[in-house]
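Write out structure tokens for DNA repair protein RadC.
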Amino acid sequence: MSFKDLPLDARPREKLIARGAAALADAELLALLLRTGVAGKNVLQLAQQLLERFGGLSGLLHTGVDDLKSVKGLGGSAKRSELIAVLELARRAMGEKLRERAVFDSPDAVKQYLQLHIGPRPYEVFAVVFLDVQHRMLALEEMFRGTLTQTSVYPREVVTRAIHHHAAAVVLAHNHPSGSIEPSRADESLTQTLRAALALVDVRVLDHIIVSPGQSFSMAEKGLL
């Protein structure tokens, strides 16, 4: 069922034109992207199902391609591609924001940015946000994959990339696919090892953030740095 089959007062396109995008509910905005529903389910119901399945807009932003494939009505590549493109635009917009202003002017934006990029991964990823002297983002690099220990994350490579970017500071980050965001002793030990190595080239470690979809833990905020 498409928009034209909905009652006039339930059509999000007309509502947007008449009252503006802010007047639309999350499901209505998502329905505009989906355009059509599936057999037995109109487009608004399909949009609401997506939000409920993935935990709202925030959860949807953390959703991977394979998760979307499993949703009835998104099996076709065209509709799924459009939705993935919009989600990627949201991620990139957030990245641009961090490049324009000091990351700790908006610490929540840093956490959300990291959640979007590495939170949904089914395996552990260690990433580094490289910052300039004004703490604006220069680059985000995913440097290591797999179980993270001091033997699998090489300080020399982190130092080399920091020098390459002429970074003045970094934010370390990794994900916990299990969903728990509490740091382990290995996480804390690794942080101190990297902090000491980067200090040798005058690069500060400002934080180490652990993420999972919809959650984050800042070691700096908890006094662990």
